[in-house]
Amino acid sequence: MNQTSHTYLAEEKIGKLMLRFSVPCIMSLLVSSLYNIVDQIFIGRGVGYLGNGATNVVFPITIITLALALMIGDACAAYLSLCQGRQDAEGAHKCVGNGITLSVGVSLLLTLFFILAKNPILHAFGATEANLAYAQEYFDVIVLGIPFYMFTSAMNSIIRADGSPQFAMFSTLAGCVLNMILDPIAIFALGWGMQGAALATIIGQIVTAVLSAGYLLRVKTFALHRASFRLSPRLLAKVLPLGISSLLTQLSIVVIMGVMNNVLVKYGAQSPYGPDIPLTVVGIVMKVFQIVIAIVVGIAAGAQPIVGYNYGAGRYGRVKQIYAAIIKAECVVGGIAMLCFEVFPLQIIGIFVSEDGLYNEFAVLAFRVFLSTILLCCLQKATSIFLQSLGKPVQAMGLSLLRDFVLSVPLTLLLPRLFGIVGALYSAPIADVVSVLVAAVMMVGVLRDLTRRENAAAPLPAPQPGGSAAPCPAEG
Question: How far is the first Cα of the chain from the last one, in angstroms, to the nearest whole number?
């Protein structure tokens, strides 16, 4: 490892560093989110809202794949950054090689599992009689791209930690642009419908995977060897816990989507909206929510190499400054998002499909209620990733689980029993309020610990004339 290549992380202005690392990370994650958004827009125009509902049913398998990819990729990226701060060349190349081997192996097993369990999975995530055929068409193709999608998602984090956030952004953007070009051709010109949208997606994923694999030939801060790819259980036991928070954050989305989809179908059937309108609308709301979360996670995850390096190098005061900068940025993003969702919900939903009556009525309600506390969610998500960057997987995991599983799932099941279909929409605001309060309490302790470490590492003041180490405060 080049021992001086990352010293700028401890010297450069924090704002400048965050722009360099977070903006490409945001763009990469946004582009990943846009794969599904673009499909939704073209399917909504070419197939209709039942096609959109079908993509919402299939979407959780993409999240499951992303969860495992981020567990591996984010863990390796965090460990790589800590190794860079400690000047540990051996740990750096081995953690990356192990991560690549693991991501390829897991992706193949996951693909096989999804193929064998297709129909039970679709029914578990809320497929209805009206959209099941569409969901099966989309699933049959999209599942074939899982190995490419998982590899690129894991590599993206590692490439950023290696000091090449711009390349990570470019490789992902190339695949997304290709998907945007192929979607209308496959859906409208060739008339392939749902299968065409899925095919356009996996072609884009393949292109990104090829670019990411090519990057391994010109890495900056470590050198891969044949031994790097040999799985080491001892090393993985140290590395993978750093990605548990990312895994659980994504898996909790899968759980809540599964629970929410089934609740919406059940209680929607008892309401004037029917089962398919709530299922489709909330699916779109969740996709838009994922765009905001991509920005939020991009800010915090993009800063991960900066946090990890400075923490590993003992620059604790600088670590606190980085956290403050992250929180300020998240407040701006969350505030703008909340304003848009409260003021322009109908315009946002109109991007995906043009409907009227009950569809629009429920769409406006869903945006204004479900996403009303998105600012608080932004702060909680950023804090969880910051804790992960410090090598504190237990705290990060606990914070992620609290909001996205411990609170959201029971509230989603309970509130509709009391308030009908509208009750399901209030699960997110309540979970956001409680979880951000817990995050605040947790961070008070973390910041105090950083201050204590900073003071312990600070040099003693020079001795004063007369032999006193420091002047005594005056009395009275």
Answer: 57
- Please say whether the beta carbons of 428 and 370 come within 8 A: yes
How confident is the model at residue 185, as a pLDDT?
Answer: 92
Residues of the chain falling short of pLDDT 50: 1-4, 460-476
In this structure, which amino acid lies at residue 378? Answer: C
Give every CB contact of residue 139 below 8 A, 6+ residues apart in sequence. 58, 61, 114, 118, 121, 122, 198
Q: How far apart are CA 45 and CA 231, in angstroms?
A: 47
Task: Give the largest Cα separation in the chain, rounded.
Answer: 90
Instruction: Name every residue whose Cβ is closer than 8 Å to that of residue 230 and which is 6 or more positions away in sequence.
Output: 97, 98, 101
pLDDT tens digits along 157-190: 888 878 787 888 888 888 888 988 998 899 888 8
Q: Could you please report the per-residue DSSP string of 341-395?
A: HHH-HHHHHTTT----THHHHHHHHHHHHHTTTHHHHHHHHHHHHHHHHTT-HHH
**pTM, full prediction:** 0.71
Torsion-angle region of 224 (φ positive above 0: left; ψ -120 to 50: alpha; else: beta): beta
- Which DSSP string corresponds to 417-430? HHHGGGGGGGHHHH
